[in-house]
Amino acid sequence: MTTPAETTLDMRGLRLHLPGAARPVLAGIDLTVAERETVALVGESGSGKSLTSRSVLRLLPPGATTEGVIAVQGEDVLAMNAKRLRHLRTHTAAMIFQDPRAAINPLRRVGDFLTESLRLNADLSDDTAAERAARMLDAVGLGERVLGQYPGQLSGGMLQRVMIASALMGDPALILADEPTTALDVTTQAEVVGLLDDLRERFGTGLLFVTHDLGLAAAISDRVYVMYAGRIAETGPAQAMFERPRHPYTAALLRSTPRLATPQGRLAAIKGQPPSLREELTGCPFAARCAFTTPVCTEELPPHVPVRSEPTRLVACHHSDELADQLAESALHD
Amino acid sequence: MTFLRFALRRLAEMAATLLAASFLIFGAMYLAPGNPASFLLSGRSASPEAFRAINAQYHLNDPFWQQYLRWLGQVLRGDFGRSIEYRTPVSTLLASRLPSTLLLVAMALALVVVIGLALGWTGAVRGGATDSTILVATTFAVGTPSFVAAVLLQGLFSVKLGWFPSSGTGSGPASMLWHLTLPALALAHYLIGMLARVTRSAMLEVMGHEHVTVARSRGVPERAVIRRHVFRNTLGTVLTMGGLIVSTLLICTVLVETAFSVNGVGQLLDLSTTTKDFPVVQAISLIIVAIFMIVNFLVDLLLPLVDPRVTLGTRGGAV
Ligand SMILES: Nc1ncnc2c1ncn2[C@@H]1O[C@H](COP(=O)(O)OP(=O)(O)O)[C@@H](O)[C@H]1O
Ligand SMILES: [Mg+2]
């Protein structure tokens, strides 16, 4: 069941251009999520994670132009008509947003929020939709009572549960979660992540989990994509990648992530700033901040190549092989 | 705060405000130049006896406080006194003129709500040239004084096209509707422009909120997104304008009824002001103040129904 047509999400060569930007904001993203798989997309803020995940629902900024294919269960999202797109958004793929308080209309009751999409698309009767909403609320650990409440009466953690319940309403094949715990306090974060993982298992959905937290990515995902300046720097199975990063950017991210393994919890923020969208880029986008830059880095864009003896990993770095040991060492100890 | 406490507090506030307003209204009449008796008798060679008789009938020689308290006592018993000009009870006078004013204000209010909201909605949703056209039109509407609008409407629709009468009130419902169409337009145009602009900018503001994008991302059809998540969220703002809308209608109806010779309460207020018919002016002024306060009270009662974040007695930014 892993032929490309049946991959839940198959994004190929996605390029996204915004008006006024000197280079594409997304410069050729290849990303897949298989059935029931959890995939993490990590990177610093501004690297294009949200744009990548939102484009799966064709939720693009005004004036954005795209190239490439985003196939969800074999159908290209970028080529859908309005009706298919609504069907995709109602039944096939659903998104969970960062700040549930901003994402839910404060003037409508939770019950309305949960059922409106199915009711308005005439897919379910009011009663059936309400029944399903009650069941989904139960699945996320909230009582039926919540149906009649307004968002203002619920805590942030409860609202994010409502958001998750709403994502499950249409029985989707894919859930996109864009930093779903960033706006929550620490204990709630853990609960929400645990819940999301449980439900993914129980309802058999694929999950694309966007986060800037590598620890979280490692804990929840099967595979990870590391994104930098609109490109995938490195991808592979979570454990292998975080134990032996092959891209200097991955190593730098690991160093800036608090982990149990880090002695004294010394954290090194990555020096410098990601390149602005007003700059055109030749060569490797990370060259300006990388400790191992050589002339070739600023001249040639590194292609994505499989890591030797680890064919499930891809890395885009000219010096990946030479640096392998050094990066593994530095990621752990700095 | 419980509903009962809120209602009682607001009623007490309204009573106090009305009392203050009554004092100001009566005081203004008292201080106004000219004397009703001399006005009544102007042009006629009145005998000092006639003059004295009128002064006695209306207690014009009593001290201010006595006059005020006597008047207030009557008003509290529902008696607004007798008109000096028409020599009939003010309440009879008002009752005979009320239907045309009520119909006129109701027609204007309907126009304001329907056209104002529709224009604001269309401008915000369509954008582009449609929006620019609506903006220009509403700027024009807001900038045109009622009396100018009255002249323009009469010139175009009654003199040139002959579709509507240029003045008068008519009798019978159909004829009244026909007669009051142009006055209602003259009365409504400013508020249509205002409401359209407020609605438009409120909708544009809400459209920038994340929950609207999220609604789209969940497959909610576009029309429903606009209706249920954009327009719905501007209702609080629109409702808050209710007080302003009603008071503007009441005040402008004086100008419009005069311009179109509609025999309503507004025209009566205008006539009574010129003839110094104090009891009539006082009664109408007081009623306008009372209506304004009642409308604001109703707005405060309705606001929590429209926006669950607003609790009784705290007007918040409703978006
Ligand atoms: N609506 C938009 N209009 C213009 N630029 C945008 C818009 N959304 C995102 N961007 C730009 O695209 C880049 C990637 O943004 P985003 O996908 O939100 O990053 P991330 O989610 O990784 O923090 C950023 O440089 C951001 O400024
Ligand atoms: Mg983001």
UniProtKB/TrEMBL annotation, chain A:
Compartment list: Cell membrane
UniProt keyword list: ATP-binding, Cell membrane, Membrane, Nucleotide-binding, Transport
Record Pfam families: ABC_tran, oligo_HPY
Membrane topology: Peripheral membrane protein
Keyword Transport: yes
Domain ABC transporter: start-end pairs: 11-254
Gene Ontology molecular function: ATP binding
Family under the similarity heading: Belongs to the ABC transporter superfamily.
Name of the protein this chain belongs to: ABC transporter ATP-binding protein
Organism: Streptantibioticus parmotrematis
TrEMBL record, chain B:
UniProt cross-references to SUPFAM superfamilies, sorted A to Z: MetI-like
Residues that span the membrane, as ranges: 12-32, 102-122, 134-157, 177-198, 235-260, 280-299
Gene3D superfamilies, per database record: MetI-like
Compartment(s) of residence: Cell membrane
Primary location recorded for the protein, binned into one broad class: membrane
Keywords for this protein: Cell membrane, Membrane, Transmembrane, Transmembrane helix, Transport
Membrane topology: Multi-pass membrane protein
A Pfam family it matches: BPD_transp_1
InterPro entries associated with the record: BPD_transp_1_N (IPR045621), MetI-like (IPR000515), MetI-like_sf (IPR035906)
Residues annotated as domain ABC transmembrane type-1: 98-299
UniProt family annotation: Belongs to the binding-protein-dependent transport system permease family.
PANTHER family reported for this sequence: DIPEPTIDE TRANSPORT SYSTEM PERMEASE PROTEIN DPPB-RELATED (PTHR43163:SF6)
Name of the protein in its database record: ABC transporter permease
